[in-house]
Amino acid sequence: MSFADTEVGDSRRTAGRTITEADLVNFAGVSGDFNHLHTDAERMQESGYGERIAHGALVFSIATGLLWQERGDGGDSSSDVVAFYGVDRLRFRGPTFVGDTVHVETEVVELEERPDHPEAAGVVREEAEVVDQDGSVVLSCELLALVR
Question: Backbone phi, then psi, for 118, in 5-degree steps?
Fold first, then answer.
């Protein structure tokens, strides 16, 4: 995905990935976020969700991993990415549970040339949605990448 080969309207869809119990436990440990929403099965049975929900930041992290994996294992496509440049308009739009399978759908919405940047030709802005197995959007955002 070089900057020169990218056009507004380009879209892609990643493979799916199932959220596991290990994901929830490991993310709580790494992040330090032991909020009962994610860690207390008994208490969450009595909630409106009926069970624990995955951390929003975990779902976002999985989404970025799925997008990176979709580019390939360090091949030409992944080497065009200089850096993850940022995220705008991040929204957690629905709960994600252990056992849900999510994938990411993106569409390029803007290309900004960066002649001042020594490593990148420009910034690619993509609208991204994380979608679960039922077709519900659980997370949406705009992702920005510096690209050669």
Answer: -70, -20
Distance CA 74, CA 35 (A): 36
Span 12-30, pLDDT tens digits: 999 999 999 999 999 999 9
- Segment 113-116 long-range contacts (CB within 8 Å, at least 24 positions apart): 113/3, 114/146
Considering only CA atoms, which of 77, 85, 73, 31 is closest in space to residue 56? 31
How many Cα atoms are found within 13 Å in the side-chain-facing hemisphere of 16?
Answer: 12
Backbone angles phi, psi at 140, to 5 degrees: -140, 150
| pTM for this prediction | 0.93
Please report, to the nearest 10 degrees, the dihedral formed by the alpha carbons of residues 37, 43, 47, 50 taken in order.
Answer: 90
- The answer for residues whose C-beta is within 8 angstroms of residue 94's C-beta and 6 or more apart is 132, 136, 137, 138
Nearest to 9 by CA among 147, 104, 123, 109: 109
Asked if residue 94 lies in contact with residue 137, where contact means CB atoms within 8 angstroms, the answer is: yes
